[in-house]
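To close the section, here is one more complete example, presented without commentary so you can practise reading it yourself. The ligand is NAI.
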Amino acid sequence: MRKVTLINGDGIGPEISDAVVKIIDASGLKIDWDVQTAGEDVITKEGVPLPERVLNSIKKNKIALKAPVTTPIGKGFRSVNVQLRKELDLYANLRPCKNLPNVKTRFDNVDIVVVRENTEDLYAGIERQADEDTAESIKIITRKASERICKFAFDYAVNNGRSEVCVVTKANIMKLSDGLFLDCYRKVAEQYPQIKKREILVDNLCMQLVQKPEQFDVLVLPNLYGDIVSDLCAGLIGGLGVAQGANIGTDCAVFEPVHGSAPDIKGQNKANPTALLLSAIEMLRYMKEFLYAEKIEKALFKTLAGGICTADLGGNASTTEFRDAVISNL
Ligand code: NAI
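Output:
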């Protein structure tokens, strides 16, 4: 039986992961969940929010499903999410954004995959106070990281039947840093003659996304633009309750929803498990469990198409009612 690390998280994390585990179990796929706790509650017992045992479990199992973990704002411990990405070198942030049945949005035909570089750019965190009135932040773009993320995007396109990979930069202004990213894209692109190429500036992309999102397929971006554009794309398909994500490295992959621990609705049986379920479905595809991925996705779509959804999408189903409806549609 395949072993997968499960981080239940906190806030709404335990409620939505319970729903997702029960749905996967009901599909007939047997997974041996290696449950690992992390976050605020763990600090009191183990002194740190992300104990070595969690990292070791992911390194051993190579794959993890993760519910959200609370990070204190402006104080306290470093984000468990950022730490995980760094420690496991999860260099690719993958966010498929596709319209869901019955989830009303401004556009009907969005099917975009955002591939964001996860390790450098302005997020390297190299900043200094040059003087009292001047702060500086250094943007790092390397050939190694840029080539591997572009290769990831093209490989994803090939393996998932996608036809185009569009690179997003501001290389007209940042000629050296974004210029290097663009240069790496062009070089990698030569190895994929079957995939269409496209280059766009990030400001133009944002305008086009909110006017004609259907023209885009796979997007590959440096870290900062990727962060912003992936939230824009999540908005195009109905927001946080349905936005899935994954952080993928050479050795390991962690699948998680975009949203946080939603402390405002914690313990109320109100949370929408869809984003975590979609992340789990993408995880099953990554594990090559295509039949189960398809089966669960169909059941989810049938449930939504039948008008059953949680309050964030305008419905009145509780987390457990939604879970049971998906299970009965399997
Ligand atoms: P949030 O995403 O937790 O919540 C924002 C709003 O969306 C809230 O009103 C919440 O009720 C709603 N919401 C989020 N997910 C939902 C779901 N599945 N179903 C229904 N409603 C949902 O963002 P917020 O409040 O900024 O962050 C709360 C905590 O989560 C913070 O400590 C933050 O650091 C952490 N966080 C963790 C992430 C992770 O573990 N990957 C990602 C983002 C935030």
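Once you have examined the tokens, check your reading against these statements. The chain has a mean pLDDT of 94. Residues 12, 68-71, 81, 240-241, 256, 259-265, 271-272, 275, 312 surround NAI (CB under 6 Å).
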